[in-house]
Amino acid sequence: MADASSAAQQIAAGYETGGTALELGTVVVNGEVDPAARVRIPLAMMNRHGLIAGATGTGKTKTLQVVAEQLSAAGVPVVMADIKGDLSGLSVAGESNDKVTERAKDTGDDWQGASYPTEFVSLGTGGIGVPIRATITSFGPILLSKVLGLNDTQESTLGLIFHWADTQGLALLDLKDLKAVITHLTSDEGKADLKGIGGVSAATAGVILRSLANLEANGGDTFFGEPEIDPADLIRTATDGRGVITLFELGDQSARPVLFSTFLMWILADLFQFLPEAGDLDKPKLVFIFDEAHLLFADSSKAFVEQVVQTVKLIRSKGVGVYFCSQMPTDIPNDVLSQLGARIQHALRAFTPDDQKALSRTVKTYPNTDVYDLEKDLTALGIGEAIVTVLSEKGAPTPVAWTRLRPPHSLMDTIGDDKIKAAAAASSLQDKYGETIDRESAYEKLNAKMAAAQPESGDGAAPAGDSPFAGAEGNATATGSTPRGKKQEEGAVEQVMNNAAVKSFMRSAGTAIGREITRSLFGAARRR
Length: 528
Fold this sequence. Notes:
Layout: H1 4-13, E1 21-29, E2 32-42, E3 50-53, H2 60-73, E4 78-81, H3 98-106, E5 118-123, E6 130-132, H4 136-139, H5 141-148, H6 152-167, H7 175-185, H8 191-197, H9 202-217, E7 245-249, H10 257-274, E8 286-290, H11 294-297, H12 302-315, E9 320-326, H13 334-337, E10 342-345, H14 353-363, H15 374-377, E11 385-389, E12 401-405, H16 417-425, H17 428-433, H18 442-453, H19 470-473, H20 485-489, H21 493-498, H22 500-506
Helix pairs in contact: 5-6, 5-10, 6-9, 7-9, 7-18, 10-12
């Protein structure tokens, strides 16, 4: 076999590109790194999706940082989860030290500290970033079933409940709306409606209602509501042309990571509906990164996985690249893995028989190589090193490359909660999403219907506290939300149509023929 330098150059030849590319690092052969043997991903191929995997402490987060930095510099917006807060350093220029200098030399990187345009957003109103919400109607029954941990039968029932609400023109904006609908369907007054849906038992509806109550008790209600996130706010560039990096932090949903990961999947499905077909582009419109992707697929229903596969397959044509990040490649279903063109595999651990099986399965997903013994080398990689193969400009897999990865140019540490809060408060998104809006929806309509059906009391009004949906409201008028009384004051057409929440709902409103809201991926409401 040729010497290490010659082998490294042969491998690097497979990564040559005539267009713009993301520089990942340089080739290592027999423990020797060649700074001139570059490993890169063509920017035009970033919408062919990818996987970044590896055991804890092997450098995955820094790899995410390197990828996000270069995408931003190329004018590509990035959306990524920041579950541990480690990525907030993207907003601050990095500081040089001996390790950075050595790694930059090994990877042929003319390193200079740099910061990148960053938005900090949180799932719901309990975090430190700009609060981001979704309406129940837009979220859809499949994703909500995933969050609630429902079985297949219960998921089907929830879908029928959504269908009934859609046909009745009942907007499901937050949890109390859905609870009100289910409460109605399981009441004496709603028996006829429940029977009309078909195949829905009162017992199953009751289970769903209790699951919603548990979600609300755990703070999940702060995520559902209005104003709903506008996908256009995730596809922005800064004034200097660099792509804005949007970091989603977990906020007070740290005890419910499944809600967090499922919400990101909803964002992706929402983007699919929002974006027009784009075909092959010189660079993607957006790159979406799922960190801790195992949370997305754990205990998932067949319907959920099928919809993820469909989303990943189809969204490439919208100019969006999707990258999953997890500890083991086996965390990702095979049908999803088969759609991922790039593999950046950090070190794997093989301490148990299951680990050994996962290692063997991982090796089989790589192209053949006579330079490396992958089953051995995957357990021998150093921190900040990975086994890489991507798609070339021609769409063919590149040679397998043991890669020493470049160091990030931004701060390799968190900036702290206080600075994140300050950045969020100064964001232009704060004015748009900072305050919860609570307009008339299913809860109010059903409440009014029941009140009208009740005998009038002496003063001509229904007695206070008689609403069968009083328990569904919960803490609807918490700090930062608009009181319900305000709805009665806003009767003018101009006020209604100019309201941000109304505009949010109009994006998911039904067609003129019938009231049913057309649903697309994951049963989420299709945008108009």
